[in-house]
Amino acid sequence: MTTPSVNGALHPRLQEIADDFTSMADQDRLQLLLEFSQELPALPERYAAHRDLMEPVPECQTPLFLAVEVDPDEVVHLFFDAPAEAPTTRGFAAILHAGLDGLGVQEVLDTPAEFSHRLGLSDLVSPLRLRGMAAMLARIKRQVREQRGAR
Amino acid sequence: MALPQDSAPKFAEYAHPEKIVSTEWVAAHLDDPGLVVAESDEDVLLYETGHVPGAVKLDWHTELNDPVTRDYVDGAGFARLMSEKGIGRDTTLVLYGDRNNWWAAYALWVCSLFGHPDVRLMDGGRAKWIAEGRPVSTDTPKPAPADYPAVDRDDQRLRAFKDQVVAHLGQPMIDVRSPGEYSGELLHMPDYPQEGAMRGGHIPGAKSVPWARAAAEDATFKPRAELEAIYLGEAGLTPDDDVVVYCRIGERSSHTWFVLQHLLGFGHVRNYDGSWTEWGNSVRVPITRGDKP
User: Fold this and answer.
1) Which positions in chain B touch A128 (Cβ < 8 Å)?
2) Which of A16, B64, B193, B226 lies at a 20 to 30 A Cα distance from B17?
């Protein structure tokens, strides 16, 4: 995969999240991920009643749906839906929400594809799960590009 | 000292009823000495959200695997792990987990490679325990270390390696992945991470029986007669067959291994844990595409 930003800098919001994780001992990292999972915002009514408007992310091992909106000011808004029985997937979604929701289009597109590997979680959760998070990010960026292109 | 077996009539029909207990049994024996309950989940955070009171966590990814080589821990590593969890060689170990006990079955299979004498699954796993409104706890037990001897892992009886699978071609094999994985259809779109295999399809001759067909709606194993209809009837296996089961990395197929070995009493079932991530990446091994064996 050719991604220009592979070794690029993280947006300060993402960097702060990454720093929070990597400054902790292993067990505390899982606890922080759990806290993220508990803070994933609920879906607004327009999606809660219409899951079909959301994009499934089959690369995640548990069902995850996401929706991306780019507003007229080129600000990105993210919406995620994952079941409570899937706290890891919810945690990853919540990290992306905390890090990217409300950023500008270019800021989202500049997020390095391997962001998920900068959280110090590679040894704690399976590679396949981290790939699920990378897939969420890839799909978010693709939707952002498409929506910007459609303007 | 092993705990008594669960005498539920459903289990009595299985070939090895001593390998399975109900949620009721676990609730009744939770405080018995000689018992350790361990949760092993696909989602590594689920245990932290609340678990069977007193249960320890057994992490398939970080604890059962060697951190560097693609293999399981060795005898010394397994002994260390069991000791840390307060599990002795004579402990009755009951495993349960999420997703129809998928990972719990995997952990049970790994424990079986080390010949742990008494290891059982809790039928219905985590989902059933919670659906029944039984208590959960977020307290993490800190067990006193137990004595566990270093026992060599036996990779002959229950485990198959790639060369052995090549030699096994033409004999009974079950692919337990989803129909799409079996047929070799791939989502091929840019930017969409793939499952990590260079080729799609299945091992020639392997029949498709997705693993979750062995589970009922409530995540319990189906009764023996229904399992026989699937594996003996549809798949045409017989209990004295030499069978190899596989999936993507050997986890889902552990579930089917448990069904054939312990519930239906097959004498020789091996789990090919290299599975599709090895076979589908190997040079010049035969592959079949499509929905036929």
Assistant:
1) 196
2) B64
